[in-house]
Amino acid sequence: MTNSTAAPGRLLRLTLQIYRNQLESTEAEREKFAREYLTKAASMAAKHGIEKYQQVYTPPAFREALEEVSRRGKRGWVIDDHDLTVEFYFRSFAAMGSIGADPEWRALQASEGPYVNLIHTVATFGWVEQYVDAGKVIHIGEDGKSTYPSWAELGDVKSAFPAPAAAPAAATAEGDAK
Q: Which pTM was predicted?
């Protein structure tokens, strides 16, 4: 078994499942927006320590095909009806906080209005455990077990967020005196 024996660190993932704004816009306008937006977003994401940024497009024809697969296989799947899923991968939520505070990022997000339904977006936050990469099994030890840290460690959401700033010493001492 080809494998990585080193224990992988926790990789966090934030996904935003987005519906397309149904306002009239031409395909050429949507294509231009998407390609310009992506180049700007990718540069900013990398600048702020995002390890991976990707978009997954799920147009109606793909959703219909998946629904047919489900029907034929008698699976009963509920087919997600979002048009786009945006995925951010990072090690600490501080990277997401950093990009979110960037005025250039905020300006870029403001340009989404004509193309993205700004009201109805579904978000998910979790961690990734990858076991196959480029067709090879990874993160399985010689003992046949996952090399990832325990669920307790990976699931500690507090460790994903930066620690709050410490209170100034004078304020703490003053609070202790009360």
A: 0.81
List the domain range (segments joined by +) for residue 43: 11-177
- What are the structure tokens assigned to 26, written together? 């031409």
Number of domains, the chain: 1
**pLDDT (tens digit, 9 = 90+) per residue, 157-177?**
887 776 666 656 555 544 554
Q: How many CB atoms lie within 10 A of CB 64?
A: 10
The CATH number for 36's domain is 3.30.70.100
pLDDT in tens, 98-144: 999 999 999 999 888 888 888 889 999 999 999 999 999 999 999 99
- What are the pLDDT digits (tens) for 50-59? 999 999 999 9
